[in-house]
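Read as amino acids, tokens; as here:

___
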Amino acid sequence: DRQAYYSKSADFVPRPQTHYGLQITASGFKSIIGRVLTPEMPVFAVELHPDTLKVGLNQTVDLSWRSATRGKGILTGKMLVEPIGIDESTDADFDFQCASLYKVVDLEEGTYTTDSFSCDRSVTRPYLLRLTAMDANYYKYFVTGEARDYANILLPSNTTQGWGVGIDGGFGVFGAIASDSLQRIIVVESRKE
């Protein structure tokens, strides 16, 4: 049974690069204390991305963001199912994961060049890119700790149990993320062409 607290109050608006603390006390239990330094907000360099990303066996794309952002991040991309333009097919057997992206990045670098993509057929679809910055606690728990037995609703993983990061006296993580997204059109060249 997972327990989480979500504040719906408009009074709390986390600020980037700010230290926050958490203390949980309950009668008959040891206190739980947490500390976090929120990440900077990552920002895609929208002006550096063409409206249409063309990829394939011999084509890659440079993805760029404001390089002043510090820390680690995750860069993801996924093809959306809605067809556009002349590509009106709704082939249930088509693998929309053929152009997916999941990459741990150093945000200071400001750019990442994709590997080539390979799909069974040529396709044109909307494509959603997301750049997620994370504090050190979140990174340690969900990215470098992936060999441990735990899960995350935001990143691919298993089950959450048995260890804590950013908190003393309890299990889990006291962490923070911030993300930016960018939608473009992706044209993927077929591996058969």
Q: What stands out?
A: Residues 136-142 form the longest helix (7 residues).
